Amino acid sequence: MIINKEHLFEDNKKDLKSHKESFDFLGLKLDNEGHDVAKIITKLKDFQVAIPSWALGAGGTRFGRYSFYGEPSSLDQKIEDIGIIHTLTQTSGAVSLHIPWDIPEDFKSIKELACSLNIKFDAVNSNTFQDQKGAKESYKFGSLSNTSKAAREQAIQHNLDVINIGNKLGSKSLTVWLADGSNFPGQSNFQTALQHTESSLKSIYKGLPDDWSMLIEYKPYEPNFYSTVIQDWGTSFMLANACGEKAYSLVDLGHHLPNTNIEQIVSILMMKGKLGGFHFNDSKYGDDDLTVGSIKPYSLFLIFNELVYGMRNNPQNPNLAWMIDASHNIKDPLEDLIQSLESIQEAYAKALLVDQDALKDAQMNHDVVTCQEILQAAYRTDVRPLIEKARLDLGGAIHPIKAFRNLKVRETLIKERGKNTVATGL
Ligand SMILES: [Mn+2]
């Protein structure tokens, strides 16, 4: 399904008047406060978040999975789904492929399809957390860290194959997330496991094209419940430094123990020029993979405040690869992604409103109350009219969820694909 632009234009008409009124009101207020509204809107328009190829179908837990009707059953259909979200939101102009779940059969045609929908190929993701059909070696006891040289070599080769696939599509980065670790004390030698991991990552790094980067993700626990080899940002940072200047840390919001100060991690990594990518989701307890901004929107804002600070003040840090890494167990996956995109844009827009100079002054004067006032004044601003304006200017929907329903997207997908399709890899 491809959204008919004329139908979308017609649908927007219903909300045009109220949008304009709220935008004019907010625009005037921000203008009076000294903000450059046009510049903020340009920044919002430029902000694109990749959708992972595994997020278009219903997710599940180890207890079960409830499928969603009309799910995409091929890579083509997944890219079409991202095209639908991008047409409505104008902020998801990239796909992040998971290999081997989504290896293109025909590179040329998949590139043409993505191009026709204005979708770029972002980071490619390797998978050494499960055994693949016909694989000689098992990852049951680790991949890049395995005590078996043959298993390590198989995992290294897989990552090199993923780079090769990404290269044919125009990707420029490889994301490595390792499930390696141990379930019981004494099972694994911490030092040997880390040494093996470092040397395996260096072998992959050697195969990286010059204009590529390697993003190293960390996670404290799960699937292993006693130790994880790359458990935290410090370990990821250490490995990125050991590999070289094209290797970076990747922060996934859900990959932290409760109450970790993620904004501080973001800030320090950017100061060191080593924050390469970002995975958005939200959580209450662990790696819950919930809709972005659904549980802790203020934390998300504080993280964006540091990201904006870093983007302004840390030229040593590269442009970030942004991606939503969530799982949709009970919602329509496309509606869930639209909600996540909206939350990301909201947090970004609010962070752009923080008066960094005034904050610095207040910090210098040890005026703690004013510091909080400055942050919360930005956070409490309802920035939705700015996001609507950015979308509308680009031809998107004023209210993407409403448009999704008014244009009967899910009904059409079910009609086209049937009820019982299942997205690959889930
Ligand atoms: Mn992730």
Automatic annotation (TrEMBL):
InterPro entries assigned: L-rhamnose_isomerase, Xyl_isomerase-like_sf
Record's keyword annotation contains Isomerase: yes
A GO term for molecular function: isomerase activity
SUPFAM superfamilies linked: Xylose isomerase-like
Keyword tRNA processing listed: no
Keywords, alphabetical: Isomerase, Manganese, Metal-binding
Name of the molecule in the record: Sugar isomerase
Species name: Gaetbulibacter aestuarii
